[in-house]
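Lay summary. Proteins are chains of building blocks that fold into shapes, and those shapes determine what they do. In this project we predict the shape from the chain. Here is one chain we studied, written as its sequence of building blocks.
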Amino acid sequence: MSVIVVGNGGSLLNQSNGEKIDSFDKVIRMGCFKTKGYEEHTGTKTDIWSNGVSVLKLQKHFKDAKGKNLWCMVPPDTYYISTYPRSNVRKTKLLIHKYADIWIKTKYASTQPTKKQHKKFLKRLEKNNEVRQITWSSLFKLIRSMKLIKHILPLATTYENFVRPTLGISTVHEAINMYGKVYITGFDFFENGWYWDKEHTYTIYKHFPLLERVWFQKQINAGKVVVL
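And here is the predicted shape, written in a compact code that computers can read:
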């Protein structure tokens, strides 16, 4: 099965790959993507719509979703550590625990919907759509492979400056887990803004673009990711 994850980077406009994108068996798009007016570059087909990584973004962009295949890149409220190899040192486990604790703490910050509102929203989503939520084990695997933890200590404790993977890398990671190999296009690592809004770079302080670039290159070298 051929799968492509379409990013929202400005580089998408550099090529007219709309027909190529639509020819894939599965087309995954993210966030508040747009196709109208950009069909020559973006295509029009959407099989999976991924969003996150905050509760607020889910409720904003998935508000009226019905009959869709949705990927929610916000992990559950509870987590279990049961998949670590015995070779992992205890310090690493504790850091992962700490990271998860802070994520849950910031998940319902004052700028976000409440836990009760989020649960109600998820139930409605699951009733009207096919919903896949990222698991803690999948997220921890990504964070470890990015080597993210050691670069962000001491960990921030507010929603505004809590460092976490971007929607793009989380979505590609999930796609690799499900399909084994994926194509990507429109991934600019905050260099060019969105293809419909060149000024959109304001979330960069929450992420670590350099580590994400390294992770993507490793996946490309391993044959798991191919750039269209």
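What the prediction tells us: The chain has a mean pLDDT of 88.
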